[in-house]
Design goal:
Layout: H1 15-30, H2 34-41, H3 45-52, H4 60-69, H5 74-93, H6 137-143, H7 145-161, H8 171-177, E1 208-215, E2 218-225, E3 230-236, E4 243-248, E5 253-257, E6 264-265, E7 269-270, E8 276-282, E9 289-291, E10 295-296
Antiparallel strand pairs: 1-2, 2-3, 3-6, 3-7, 4-5, 4-8, 8-9, 8-10
Helix pairs in contact: 1-5, 2-3, 4-5, 7-8
Length: 303
């Protein structure tokens, strides 16, 4: 499916309006109602109505989910979202004495059991969380730099012993807190990432969902890192002992069960060249197994 591209005209100068116009164009091109859009993306139809009509600013996770649900290359939509988010942050920070930005971008996840989706996708990685910048943030960061640096050291100590339960490590949160412009460098690439943890290798920092599906209540996502040329599986709304695995067309496969909580991600498999990758979720005790579509490297010509 192609993007609307503002009906072939010039995009609005306001980045926020440009994003809204593109979301509207994508929705119209899909021919889907708000209810069907919500079912496919696992966000409530009322949230999509507000986002598409400019009543609220959408979270990054919702935009990413939209691209995955409609089989779109996410790079253009996410680039528009980034520019719009920066414009909103600049507008908020311009008034040092103003009131901080309201958290009005959070979407209402679709209630389990309603619509075709039947579950809400909880985007846990840092890149998928809508940024909320209170007014005066730059000044506060400057004044409290020493305190924040100490906090970052404490966070690093915690990570060294425990780590994060999601595919984007908490180290990225520490970097954001200190205002660092140098995020951690990915520690592997392609075949070198096979069987490795996307959080420990920092591959989760640019993770994006390529496609998703369901196995009853379990939401199964195929996650991908361009920097690491690797993919992994993630399941949410799962029970203990449910299993997620990531596989590629070269024959590599790595699996991990849910040990606690209701979500888990698998080790990585390489995805390069003409290779494809997919993720599967298996119900506990050898129950039903469902897999996502086999996905190539984003942008790879097919045929």
């Amino acid at each position: 499916m192609a993007f609307g591209h503002f009906s072939q005209g010039q995009p609005p100068e306001d980045p926020v309006e440009a994003l809204r116009a593109e979301l509207l164009a994508v929705k119209q091109a899909s021919g889907l109602s708000y209810a069907r859009l919500g079912a496919r993306t696992h966000y409530a139809k009322s949230s999509w109505e507000r986002w598409v009509n400019g009543k609220q600013f959408p979270p990054r996770a919702a935009v990413e989910s939209l691209a995955a649900a409609l089989e779109l290359d996410p790079e253009r939509l996410l680039a528009l979202w980034e520019r719009a988010d920066e414009a909103r942050a600049d507008a908020t920070g311009a008034d040092e004495g103003g009131v901080g930005e309201s958290a009005n971008g959070a979407g209402e996840p679709e209630e389990p059991g309603h619509g075709a989706g039947g579950a809400a996708v909880a985007e846990a990685d840092t890149s998928a969380t809508p940024r909320q910048r209170p007014a005066g943030r730059r000044r506060l960061l400057f004044v409290g730099a020493a305190c924040l640096l100490g906090a970052a050291v404490s966070v690093a100590a915690v990570l060294a012993t425990g780590g994060d339960s999601h595919d984007a490590p908490a180290a990225s949160k520490a970097a954001a807190a200190t205002g660092s412009a140098q995020p951690p460098t990915p520690q592997c690439r392609a075949a070198g990432c096979g069987g490795k943890d996307p959080a420990a290798t920092h591959c989760g920092l640019d993770g994006q969902t390529l496609t998703l599906t369901r196995n009853k209540d379990i939401v199964i996502e195929l996650r991908y890192s361009k920097a690491c040329a690797a993919a992994w599986g993630r399941i949410t709304y799962a029970s203990k002992s449910a299993i997620v695995d990531a596989d590629n067309s070269a024959g590599d496969s790595f699996a991990t069960p849910v040990h606690w909580g209701n979500d888990v991600y698998s080790p990585m498999v390489a995805v390069t060249g003409r290779m494809t990758a997919w993720a599967c979720g298996t119900q506990p005790n050898g129950g039903a197994r469902e897999c996502t579509r086999h996905m190539p490297v984003p942008g790879t010509p097919q045929g």
